[in-house]
Specification:
globular; binds nicotinamide-adenine-dinucleotide
């Protein structure tokens, strides 16, 4: 059997991929991976929001069709989709931060809900003028479930909900996508649309505010203690390459099989759920320093427990998590340490980590179903 890399390149090489959110953390990694697979990528997103930013470190602006555009601008988004005529769409652009969503709920809903509907509407227009097959993966989150904070492992049929503006905006994006699928993309439609609900991702190149790993690295670089808001919160942590591999495997198989047009969870094995304090402790094994509990009982609500069932993705896509918790943290800290020592090595390092992940995936027997 050919390797996962060979299988994915057979599908994506020379294909047109419309990727929203390519200036962000996950989008930049996905753009890099798609370029390694030989795809022609059109990125559509806002200007990079952090300094430094992985998008620039990978020099993506010169390696793909780079477009600054707002998903709230339906006309521009539609023009871009209609003129590029993609084979694949990966929709990652979003306002992705829970705490920011409390400050800016309307911006969050406009971006995450209307942005998603604008993309779906553009695909509806595209199918009127083109009959070629399109596979679209709309990225939401595991936070889209009605989270009762018990030990339930949520599977794809559990009720949607979301306590805060971010989580509920993603549940709304899920509902809107399902409605478009039933109303416009069923039966003979050439557009196959799925949604992907991933857990908390970590990995090199995330420079966002308000996320535990970038916060920890910023503190370690300055030789300061890491302040931890919610040390006992348990999350389905995974390396960024895990859900991205899931999105690529889903897109590849969705293109062939309309039956896969639905929702998929991507998370770690259930025994790999760890709390924030475990993450920080593991980080400190590779980059010594200290941390302090800065729990604030008056802080805005953020879910403390979240478990995901990944059975559907394992059974139907042949996807499975590859790196365990320790390796996930080791690879993440390795990336930031090397970046700290030699920022110019970032692109080579990112590419090496993708190759290393593909090799480990192959060794674990991961392949398209
Ligand atoms: N990082 C995580 O732990 C995590 C977990 C689950 C789901 N997700 C989802 O994955 C996706 C990517 O997340 P990320 O961590 O890379 O976020 P990020 O903040 O690093 O990147 C967000 C991207 O969306 C773009 N964007 C934001 N608003 C936009 C707008 N109005 N128009 C066009 N582009 C816009 C930004 O320019 C950027 O390219 C999001 O949909 C997020 O909800 C992330």
């Amino acid at each position: 059997m050919s390797s996962l890399h060979a299988q994915l390149s057979n599908i994506y090489r020379g294909k047109k991929v419309f990727l929203t959110g390519h200036t962000g953390f996950k989008g930049a990694w996905l753009a890099e991976w798609l370029l390694q697979l030989g795809a022609e990528v059109h990125g559509y997103a806002l200007e990079p929001a952090t300094t430094p930013v992985l998008f620039q470190q990978l020099n993506l602006a010169s390696r793909l069709h780079h477009q600054i555009g707002d998903v709230r601008n339906f006309k521009l988004l539609q023009e871009s989709i209609l003129s590029f005529q993609p084979d694949f769409v990966f929709h990652l652009a979003a306002q992705p931060l829970v705490r920011y969503s409390y400050q800016e709920p309307l911006e969050t809903y406009e971006t995450n809900v209307m942005g998603t509907l604008h993309l779906l509407e553009a695909l509806r227009e595209l199918q009127k003028i083109s009959s070629h097959r399109i596979a679209a993966v709309m990225v939401t989150t595991d936070k889209c479930y009605e989270n009762k904070e018990d030990q339930t492992a949520y599977h794809e049929d559990h009720p949607l909900g979301g306590h805060d503006p971010y989580s509920s905006s993603k549940a709304m994006a899920e509902i809107g996508t399902a409605a478009y699928r039933r109303s416009y993309f069923s039966n003979a439609s050439a557009v196959h649309v799925a949604t992907a609900r991933a857990g908390n991702v970590i990995g090199g190149g995330d420079w966002s505010a308000d996320r535990i790993v970038p916060d920890a690295i910023r503190a370690l670089e300055k030789k300061e203690p890491i302040f931890v808001r919610n040390p006992s919160s348990v999350r389905p942590w995974q390396h960024v390459l895990e859900p991205l591999c899931g999105y690529l495997m889903l897109g590849a198989q969705l293109m062939q099989d309309r039956e896969l047009a639905g929702a998929f969870n991507f998370g770690p094995h259930p025994e790999e759920n760890y709390c924030v304090a475990d993450v920080v402790t593991e980080v400190l094994k590779s980059w010594p320093g200290s941390w302090q509990d800065r729990s604030d009982p008056t802080a805005l609500h953020e879910a403390r427990h979240l478990n995901l069932s990944i059975k559907k993705a394992v059974d139907l896509l042949g996807w499975s998590p590859v790196w365990n918790f320790e390796k996930t943290i080791t690879k993440t800290v390795e990336w930031y340490r090397l970046h700290h020592e030699d920022p110019k090595s970032t692109r080579a390092l990112t590419q090496e980590q993708i190759v290393s992940y593909e090799a480990d995936a192959e060794a674990s027997g991961i392949s398209l179903s």
